[in-house]
Specification:
264 residues, cytoplasm, transferase, 2 domains, 7-stranded mixed sheet, alpha/beta, binds S-adenosyl-L-homocysteine, S-adenosyl-L-methionine, disordered C terminus, SAM-dependent_MTases_sf, PCMT
């Protein structure tokens, strides 16, 4: 963690301004809920920073997020990673975002419209309100399946929608227990090679009713919501600067700009 290995991931993160995906302080460094009072969180372990986590994910998927690739983004939330994926696969690619909370889908559409509406109007990104555990068979098979919430076991239905040669990345393990961020590569013969990448802590991929229960169920105190309502993953430029990035002149680029101007 804490490293961007590929220049491409760095460039995509730089091109995807978090400001469009959160209301304020888009560059702060802790996981937050995206919509207030809904009990929706991105939760990573304390040693992990969210931006570096996003960088890690894009790095892990870099080889597969090629021009024209088809991607399934399960638990698309704010749409931030959905946009990053769409930028990576280019105009010939296709990204399906599945999210079970309708308000979040509406918000993610508004976010992307504020960032770059052509990602939606051109059909590169499509969102559906549904249960991500079922995937989205109509556009399967996928080169990449990314799951932004944890499951105790790898969902077979999702795996069946992965192309031979494709890659799935997801957090596996019980919520509140040890979870690993895993990379699953489906071979041409259909067998799957699993790589455990790191310890994480994600909210569960669950049904809507369970997610809407009290925040304590997800391990957060309601106070968090009152103090910090409504903002998703926030990362500071200071944190960015500490990352040993591969891209040239990154430190200069970041140092030369104020926080607000960083992503302009
Ligand atoms: N990747 C997202 C954040 C993921 S947080 C981003 O960049 O913003 C996990 C998301 O999974 C939440 O938005 C949550 O609502 C969603 N989720 C949880 N269970 C789900 C399910 N069964 N089907 C679809 N989405 C689900």
């Amino acid at each position: 963690m804490g490293t961007i290995k590929t220049e491409r991931a760095f460039n995509i993160l730089m091109a995807t301004n978090r400001r469009h995906y959160t209301k304020t302080n888009p560059y702060q460094d802790w996981p937050q809920n995206i919509v207030p009072f809904l009990g929706i969180h991105v939760c990573l372990n304390l040693s992990s920073m969210v931006l570096s986590f996003h960088a890690y994910s894009l790095d892990a998927l870099n080889d597969k997020l090629i021009e024209g690739a088809t991607v399934l983004d399960v638990g698309s939330g704010s749409g931030y990673l959905t946009s990053c994926f769409a930028r990576m696969v280019g105009p010939a690619g296709r990204v399906i975002g599945i999210e079970h909370i309708p308000e979040l889908v509406e918000q993610s559409i508004a976010n992307i419209n504020s960032d770059d509406p052509t990602l939606l109007t051109g059909g590169r990104i499509q969102f559906f309100v549904s249960d991500g555990r079922l995937g989205y068979p109509a556009a399967a098979p996928y080169d990449v399946i990314y799951v932004g919430a944890s499951t105790v076991e790898v969902p077979k239905t999702l795996l069946s929608q992965l192309k031979p040669g494709g890659r799935m990345v997801l957090p596996v393990g019980k919520y509140g227990d040890i979870q690993y961020y895993e990379q699953l590569d489906k071979q041409e013969d259909g067998t799957v090679v699993i790589k455990k990448m790191m310890r994480v802590q994600f909210i569960p991929l669950t049904d809507e009713a369970a997610q809407m229960q009290s925040p304590e169920v997800l391990g957060f105190h309601p106070h968090d919501y009152l103090v910090l309502p409504g903002y998703m993953e926030r990362v500071s430029p200071q944190v960015l600067q500490q990352l040993p990035l591969a891209a040239p002149n990154w430190a200069e680029k970041l140092n030369s700009k104020s926080q607000d101007a960083l992503w302009e």
